[in-house]
Amino acid sequence: MRLYLFHDFDRRLLPIAASKRRDWWEENDKTRNHAQHCLPLAMANSLGYYILSPLTFSVDWKGDFSQNATIKILEQTSHGAVDDHAAYGSFTLQPGFLPMTNEPGEFLFIKGIPNERALPYTCMEAVIEAWWNPATFGLVFLLNKPGIFHIHMGQPIAQMFAFRYEDNVANGFELVDGTPPEYELWHSKRNRSDYRKDLDYLRGLHPDGRLETTHIHNWREIGRVNSCQHEPSPVGRKRHCDTGVESNDPARSGDTDR
């Protein structure tokens, strides 16, 4: 993906890699030292890049969906722009750059930051044909509760990532009665009387202990997994993809029951 920066773009506010953790997890007794180790949550959180707010501003809204919010700019960069043109009870930010992908079918997904809690706004999500579209886009946020809040310059405000469309995405479902082949073994293991957190998903282990060679622990490992599938196994031993997790190693961090 290429980022075209407009002439007034402040490079201090380039998109940054998305974080896998959330601050509120450690503030909640039930999620502390637990949610941060859940790999499905971490993968969703860390997919792609954060778009950063180019200005500090306040939003004051009375909760009336037929009225505009009051927006007050407190500090802004050279490319900072915010207004309320898109809808009543909303605000719109201009990111100041234009992302483009390389090949047909490589879309740009713009969305809210996942697994945040109690935000006073919701980011409208969009999928853009970024391989050819030369137009700018605005980030539209719908307000969902009355009151006053602040957005700060440099604050992550939305998330973006590129993805490739596959034909089978729109082909519907194959309906199968019952459960998949390994479900019963997983279920009995998960519900045993002496159950402890096995970390099987984090480690890429099937219920019978086999290592899943296509398992990844973070998005950087996808290239290594894909290349591994096409390389011959060394003579005399079983090949595992270089994902950083060995079948006899303890998990590097945390747990998940998924």
Largest sheet: 5 strands, antiparallel
Shape designation: globular
Radius of gyration, in angstroms, nearest whole number: 22 Å
Strand content: 25-35%
- By CATH reckoning, the class of the largest domain would read Mainly Beta
SSE class: alpha+beta
Mean pLDDT value: 85
Count of discrete alpha- or pi-helical segments spanning 4 or more residues: 5
User: N-to-C SSE series?
Assistant: EEHHEEEEEEEEEEEEHHH
Give the low-confidence spans.
230-258
Give me the CATH architecture of the largest domain, please: Distorted Sandwich
**Total number of distinct structural domains:** 2
Give me a quick take on this structure:
This protein has 258 residues and is of the alpha+beta class. It is 12% helix and 25% strand. The chain is built from 5 helices and 14 strands.
Question: Overview of this structure, please?
Answer:
Helix content is 12%, strand content 25%. With 258 residues, it is an alpha+beta fold. It folds into two domains: 2-166, Deoxyuridine triphosphatase (dUTPase) (Deoxyuridine 5'-Triphosphate Nucleotidohydrolase, Chain A); 174-258, no CATH class. The strands form four sheets. A five-stranded antiparallel sheet has the order 2-3-14-9-11, with no helix packed on it. The chain has a four-stranded antiparallel sheet with strand order 6-7-12-10, with no helix packed on it. Strand 6 and strand 7 form a beta hairpin. It starts with a strand and ends in a 30-residue tail after the last helix. Mean pLDDT is 85; it is low at 230-258.
What attributes does this structure have?
5-stranded antiparallel β-sheet; 4-stranded antiparallel β-sheet; Deoxyuridine 5'-Triphosphate Nucleotidohydrolase, Chain A; alpha+beta; globular; 5 helices; disordered C terminus; 258 residues
